[in-house]
Amino acid sequence: MKRLWRGIPSIIRWLLVTMLLLIIVGGAAYAYKALTATVEVTVEECLSFIGPSDFQVSLYPGEIITVQVIIDNASSVDIEVDLVAFTDPDPGTKGLSINYPGKITVPALGLETVNIGISASKSAVPGTYTVSIDFDR
């Protein structure tokens, strides 16, 4: 057998040894799937309003009012929220302005109060406006 082995060219011996090692290592590393665990994950919204989030208010030219919304965070981590206001119809030069923070951080398992100021200049055009504040995570 030794003579037969040595009679094989060295490159072929090297290939045979390499293939044998790959078969041995590959066979030892290969495992079959015995069990599978499956987890269904649902990501839920952690932010919610405490109390009202819809208001009807009236003001006269020159007046300022403030409404408050309270945000609850059910998550175990602080959540940063960007606030963006939209007014319909766009008040533009009509004298209505909205004052609100651009960004808030709602603490983990806590509450954050957001004050939204609405003011009408002395030249505000009378009418009904819808102000919406988006809370973007």
Helix % is: 10-25%
Number of DSSP helices? 2
Total strand count, please? Answer: 7
- CATH architectural label of the domain at 47-136: Sandwich
CATH fold annotation of the domain at 47-136: Immunoglobulin-like
Question: At the fourth CATH level, what is the homologous superfamily of the domain at 47-136?
Answer: Immunoglobulins
Rg for CA atoms = 35 Å
Distance between the termini: 74 Å
**What is the succession of H and E elements?**
HHEEEEEEE
Contiguous low-pLDDT stretches (5 residues minimum) are none
Q: Which structural category fits the helices and strands?
A: alpha+beta
Strand proportion, as a percent range, falls in 35-45%
Major beta sheet summary: 4 strands, antiparallel
Principal-axes geometry comes out as rod-shaped
Major sheet strand order: 1-2-6-4
